[in-house]
Amino acid sequence: MNMWYLRDRGKVMGPLTADTVRTMRAAGQIQDFHEASADRRVWRAVGLVPELCDAPPRPGPPAHAAPARPPDRVYIALVAGLASVVLLGASVVGGVLLLRPGREPAVAASNPTAPAPAASTPASPPPEPAYVPPTPPPPAYVPPTPAPPATVSPQPDPNASRRASLQAELQAVEQQVRALDAQSSDLSGKLLLAEAAEVACVEAYNRAQTPGERTAANIALAVARATLRELQASFQRVESQLRDARSRVAVIRSELTRLG
């Protein structure tokens, strides 16, 4: 008996007998497009291999033993009971038909002197239902159109001119502060030189041996001291102006902050 291998998307299963493959095919576990091979070299579709397409014999249903026939007495009793039920049902049906309304009993029909029953009036057709117009569908909801935002015209700034004037003044005063600061630094350097010159003249006067040397040293000392006094006055004046300018800058900035 050949042993078979099955392949599905590269996955090989087996070895399997032909009966096993046919049973799996009948159960739907494999399809005709799956590949089968007996030597794992030549592969064919299962539906093209006759040996694998024959369905395996299916076992038949188990034989059931015939029911035992009841004894004759029991059988006769069952038949008699069934006949009684049938007769009773026929009697009931006949009585219902005789008692139906609109139908005279059979005795009245046999009497020739009895008046003929009145012809039945055909029933009037039921009235037609009143017409009810269809309810119209509710109108589609339309969201309300939002109102356009109110246009707010900008209000004129009452402090605009004052703010512009203060900003211009602040720029001018800051420029003045920078210039005075430079002058103060320059005068501070000159003061140091003038003080050094005064000290040198005093030392020269003390070292003078002759009257002429003393006179020359005295004149130089007087010039140095005059220069020193002039520089000191200029330095104090510049420092005072610088303090005033810085105070003005602080006032202008405070005013601008208040105006926003």
The portion of residues forming beta strands comes to 5-15%
Low-pLDDT runs: 56-71, 101-114
Shape: elongated
Output the radius of gyration. 69 Å
**Sheet having the most strands:** 4 strands, antiparallel
> What is the CATH topology assignment of the domain at 160-259?
Helix Hairpins
Which H/E pattern describes the elements? Answer: EEHEEHHHHH
Helix content: 40-55%
Q: Measure the end-to-end span.
A: 107 Å
CATH architecture designation of the domain at 160-259? Orthogonal Bundle
Gist of the model:
This protein is of the alpha+beta class. The protein contains six helices and four strands; from the N terminus they run E-E-H-E-E-H-H-H-H-H.
Describe this structure in words.
- It is a single chain.
- The chain has 260 residues and is of the alpha+beta class.
- Among the domains are: 3-53, GYF domain (Dna Ligase, domain 1); 160-259, Orthogonal Bundle (Helix Hairpins), CATH 1.10.287.
- It has six helices and four strands.
- It has helices at 18-26, 50-53, 72-98, 106-110, 160-207, 211-259, and strands at 3-8, 11-17, 35-37, 44-45.
- A four-stranded antiparallel beta sheet has the order 2-1-3-4.
